[in-house]
## 1
Amino acid sequence: MGAGTGAGTGAGGGGGLDAAFFVAWLEEAAGEIARQRDRLTELDAAIGDADHGTNLDRGFSEVLRTLRETPPASPAQALMAAGATLIRRVGGASGPLYGSAFRQMGKTLDGGEAPRPSVTPAELAEAFSAGVVAVERLGKAAAGDKTMIDALAPASRALSHAVRDGLEVREALTRAARAAADGARATVPMTARRGRASYLGERSVGHEDPGAASSALIVTALATAASRTAAG
Amino acid sequence: MKKLINAAESLVDDALAGMAAAHPALRVRERVVLRAEGPLPGKVGLVSGGGSGHEPLHAGFVGYGMLDAACPGEVFTSPVPDQVMEATRAVDGGAGVLHVVKNYTGDVLNFEMAAELCDDVTVASVLVEDDVAVQDSLYTAGRRGTGATVFVEKIAGALAEEGAPLAEVARVAEETGRRSRSFGIALTSCTTPAAGRPTFDLPAGEVELGIGIHGEPGRTRAPFAPAGELAAVAMDAIHGDLPLEGDLLVMVNGMGGTPLLELYVVFAEVEACARGKGARVARSLVGNYVTSLDMQGFSVTVCRLDDELTRLWDAPVETPALRWGR
């Protein structure tokens, strides 16, 4: 899929992340989830009910349609629209969890009465962290429970540290993506304590958590979007 | 994979079209199944829902004396808040609405979101969590809602039909859940149409003990054994959690791919087990009520009855899947 965001937009220039950057993120995430749909469903078949890839693909396809029909004017609008669409279309636990994460990010970046056309990397890091907290609260999950949190929380920490250390946004997001992927892989030896895999107890050991795997894809898409829009 | 479908993507909608065509007493609006006579003024509305693939649960229990609406999600995927909101508003006759929610993270989240957004309707909620195979709620998402959902929907539905207020209907629903326990055993996995092949591999000589209703594997595997031994495993697991005594309502439920002939074999063993433990099977249900697509296997659900629950279980019901007394 093409960038389609026009020149002078995205993550380049003075470090401002605009609506086009967030649309690019959601497009990259949707593309990656579509490509890895069967892998996600297979991971879910091992310790869940074999529908994670199918459900997320349905939801993110719908997100793309929403963004095309109503192009967002601000980062907050893009994220709120994505969150609402995921809640409306995915079902299961992943719909409300991812939907709430995106909505919470959007709320955090919302400028109130005056829509903010772009946000700083530090604000992105703060919003991402707020999104992760929303998932923890709603899913009543903590690190080590073998859930999405095991990919999202390390990614959030890596992003915050990188931004605080003054790294440029592409490098910061690349570190976040690496932390998410490592976090997802680290769920393999864990025993699930939340979500559907928790019913298996010890038998969940030896399998990567499908929610952590999809979270890693979504964070990786953030890094990809940064490279893509900065290049444009 | 051989399935009687047109396409995996249209399966749920195609099946709902069939339900609407087969049952004129139902009205199907998008992904909400309603009683055709609409909201009944002064009657508490009962709404349930969950993933598809468990038929007749829940849409097959919409009708007189049971549910007012069901919200079917995609196969094994909870419905979305929009569906639950639409159902809740559609069945509210001014006396409030009871949500019957099976304890799965997805079902709980989507029903909670819907209840919060329906601030124009008084909503109460009962969580069904009867599966004794999930032992430790500290290290899991908690006990799953399985067979007891049928008992809760029937018994609370009967009380609602009598015109009882929301608090009373919610109380009897809770009470039914508190007195009910389930345990399931699978002989095979099931095949979701989207995945196209069995969710797990189960060798010919083994069974899965403590299964849920989504084709997820159980907690342990055991060697395949005669029906009597498998029934005893289920009954012992239930008895270990809720001692079997007094009058029981017992459901032997098929998982979708098990012949009724075999379910009756299991029921005979279950009845003998109950008797052996000093309890009496006072009411029973044998058949496919909470299924897992084409899975072979069964679950046993037991409810320790009291006079009120017995009376409400016996009350008239007229739905596609349960009907008597009317």
Note: The helical segments of chain B are 11-22, 81-91, 105-117, 148-161, 166-178, 227-241, 260-276, 307-314.
## 2
Amino acid sequence: MRTRNLEIPGLVLTDHPGMTVPDNGARRTMLEIRNLAKSFGGVKATNDVSLDFAEGSLTAVIGPNGAGKSTFFNLITGALRPDSGQILLHGVDLAGRSPPEIVRHGVGRAFQVASIFKSLTVQETMLAAVSADQGTSAVLHKRFPLPETRHRAEHVLELLGLAGKRHRTAATLSHGDQKLLDIALALVLEPKVLLLDEPTAGMGPEERWRMIDKVRELWDTQKITVVFIEHDMDIVFKIAPKIVVLCYGRILATGTPDEIRNNSAVIDAYLGTEHAGAAA
Amino acid sequence: MTELEAGRAQTLVPVRSAAALQRYRDVLIALIAFAVLASLPLFTGSKALLDFVIRCSAYGLFATSLNLLVGYTGLISFGHGMFFGLGAYSFGLIMQKLGVPIPMAFVTTLAITTVVAAIIGAICVRLKEIYFAFVTLAFQMLIHSTILSWASFTGGDQGLRGGIPRPVFLGIDLSNHVHLYVTSCALLILGLLAMRQIAQSPFGYTLRMIRDNAARASFLGIDVWRAKLAVFVLAALFASMGGMVMALFVSGAYPEFAYWTISGEAIFINMLGGVSTFLGPMVGTVLLLLLNDTVTRFTEYHGIVLGIVILFFALGLRKGLLDFAADWFAHRRETGEGR
């Protein structure tokens, strides 16, 4: 079903602020992955992966199904414990720590299937998440919401365009809005690094572009480091200044869209030879 | 009720004042409810009616506290009745053996309940749904068997007999029926108000998050285990309070107070009244006790009648009475506004 999205658009990259700044070495490294490995039985789901993500960069992770993209995210966020390797956030090693601890260090995550609180309203969700982050989630003697949670919750609602739906119960939101709410939950904790696991999964074409515009806008305005997994090649080549291609748990290639498009290993292993003409 | 209120509230109303208003409103409702209940003896001499309200107080505190676990946190406890029994027995025993003032026995019982609930909770709240239900049930049976077999201390299957001494404290004489009645009402209203505060506090919303999606809550940095343990202990305290009201009412304590069927009754009550509204269990309590009292007058097969009623709520309405009413009103308002 996803293969129909694999055509590479022949178009030139649009102007993007991320492209004007050279990515290599000009900025500090925010997230540094060193020799990360994870096996399930005999299968090496993540096989000696080393990657740098510069501060304020936007990176797409692509790869065929089973390439180890989600495992890679699960390792960074602590949902899985790596067998070996380091995950350095501004030099602090996060490998093997618990998810809440990693969240507190500033790695936020949105899920492939929106992970939300279905009976809370959009506004309550935000307020409760801010409360959790401010350490007031166990307060008994005051009424919810605490006044000091309001500003930040409101800010994120505005940012994601969910303010108009604040009183809707999360379960009644459209699929796309639930994904936005999931991202909002990650953003409300003011992460340094935001990992988005297929932000456009399960969406129609129009909804996809709206979502990806939102992601790009967030990246532009919030100055956070964003890494996202995406299957739609149109989207990846259009918006990501840097692309990482995973295959069988290994890094097959990294580079700008042009480099990836012309990389023979990527064309052979992933995109398929019939697209080689389009890529050239 | 919160979802409905949120839907109605205007965007422009500052959150701070809305929350403060809600609190004042709750206190006001509580004061009115207490005034109405407390003045009842002025209008009626019916001892049966007052007895009914006292029993509603005991069961209402107990059932509402179970809803903190079931409705707000998604913890289905089959052994919540153990704290009802524990409250009744420790209060009765303290009064019989030590003869301290009643408030002191009350506070000591709450302290004992805290310790016991913390130990049992620490073991139980780690477990997933059905295992949590079964292990709480197992602890209930353990406490029940302890009461039965430790006959020299608890009176065994005879219960605590000989009455619970009720010394006068600050002019309140609980052996006087009206005094007992007003005290029960006061405990009910205070207990409900405290539980309402818990439900509407930031902690209450943490519980809702855990109920909906515990994994996501932990990704937000919430310690799910600690929150579950905290609510387990809090709920136990109010169940214990219900047990104490019951012990005062019958002037004794019986092993049935700690038997698993009492937990079952609390679950019935929650099913009857509804778990998604704060007062659902209170409505359920009145319904169940009314049913019990009227049906037993007509037939000895009251279990069959109760079973049919429960089935009607579970399969017919698919929710408790107050949930049903709240949904109906919400629906009507929506369609009304649409035109």
Note: Residues 14-39+46-258 of chain B form one domain.
